[in-house]
From TrEMBL:
<dbReference type="InterPro" id="IPR038765">
    <property type="entry name" value="Papain-like_cys_pep_sf"/>
</dbReference>
<dbReference type="GO" id="GO:0005874">
    <property type="term" value="C:microtubule"/>
</dbReference>
<keyword id="KW-0493">Microtubule</keyword>
<feature type="domain" description="Peptidase C19 ubiquitin carboxyl-terminal hydrolase">
    <location>
        <begin position="24"/>
        <end position="204"/>
    </location>
</feature>
<dbReference type="GO" id="GO:0005819">
    <property type="term" value="C:spindle"/>
</dbReference>
<dbReference type="GO" id="GO:0004843">
    <property type="term" value="F:cysteine-type deubiquitinase activity"/>
</dbReference>
<dbReference type="Pfam" id="PF00443">
    <property type="entry name" value="UCH"/>
</dbReference>
<protein>
    <submittedName>
        <fullName>CYLD hydrolase</fullName>
    </submittedName>
</protein>
<keyword id="KW-0378">Hydrolase</keyword>
<dbReference type="InterPro" id="IPR018200">
    <property type="entry name" value="USP_CS"/>
</dbReference>
<dbReference type="GO" id="GO:0016579">
    <property type="term" value="P:protein deubiquitination"/>
</dbReference>
<dbReference type="InterPro" id="IPR001394">
    <property type="entry name" value="Peptidase_C19_UCH"/>
</dbReference>
<keyword id="KW-0963">Cytoplasm</keyword>
Length: 227
């Protein structure tokens, strides 16, 4: 355990601490969905550190303490988290979520995020989406859904997000404080792409609802949008 808070790893420090054998979060008993999610959310960014410290109204302080002291701080300090620490969290999620399979079965990452963010910590939803002009919906992460497209062999995240929003007729109601995106590359049975290139920056200009944008013909402010 590492009870003292550690900042997220950046630049050369991230490479030094996280690269090599016996680094990252140790997998055990179908924990990969949780290991990958926790590593992505906390190893190199502080945008969700409120999950570790904020006394939210319905926050379970025991789960928050396990997440902070047994997983995030050791990951940031030594670059390694034991499988037993993640199992401790999984056991608590099983008790709180009334689902016995959290300790042994493969889960969808979205199910894990919804449980820990909404039911256990009581965090407000991170995303507000609107589909086809209908009532806006709130969620904690966005899962990419799209049909197989032959021209995308090794896509990047920017391409996948744009095409997924287009195919689902979705818009972001506002700029999110944190945009968690689940790639179409998970589970044992089927992976749509053999690999996906991470986009180090994400341009969401065209994904925002009622955002002023440039006309591709005259260069002025656009009044119509063609999908």
């Amino acid at each position: 355990e590492a009870p003292e808070s550690s900042p997220p790893l950046r630049n050369e420090a991230a490479v030094r601490v996280l690269r090599g054998r016996m680094k990252g979060i140790q997998g055990h008993c179908n924990s990969c969905y949780m290991d990958a999610a926790l590593f992505s959310l906390f190893s190199c960014t502080s945008v969700l550190d409120s999950m570790l410290f904020m006394p939210f109204p319905q926050c379970d302080r025991n789960v928050q303490g396990i997440l902070r002291d047994e997983i995030v701080n050791p990951l940031r300090r030594t670059g390694f988290v034991r499988a037993s620490s993640v199992m401790h969290l999984r056991e608590q999620l099983t008790d709180k979520g009334q689902c016995s399979s959290f300790t042994n079965a493969e889960k969808d990452p979205e199910e894990f995020l919804n449980l820990i963010m909404q039911q256990i910590l009581g965090i407000e939803p991170l995303l507000k989406l609107q589909s086809g002009g209908r009532k806006e919906q709130e969620c904690y992460c966005y899962q990419i859904f799209m049909d197989k497209q032959e021209d995308l062999v090794v896509p990047d995240v920017q391409q996948l997000v744009e095409r997924s929003f287009l195919s689902s007729d979705l818009k972001l109601v506002e700029i999110p404080s944190c945009f968690i995106i689940q790639m179409p590359r998970f589970g044992k049975e089927y992976k749509m792409f053999s690999k996906i290139i991470p986009s180090l920056e994400l341009d969401i200009t065209d994904l925002l609802l009622d955002s002023p944008r440039e006309c591709c013909l005259c260069g002025g402010v656009a009044t119509l949008e063609c999908s």
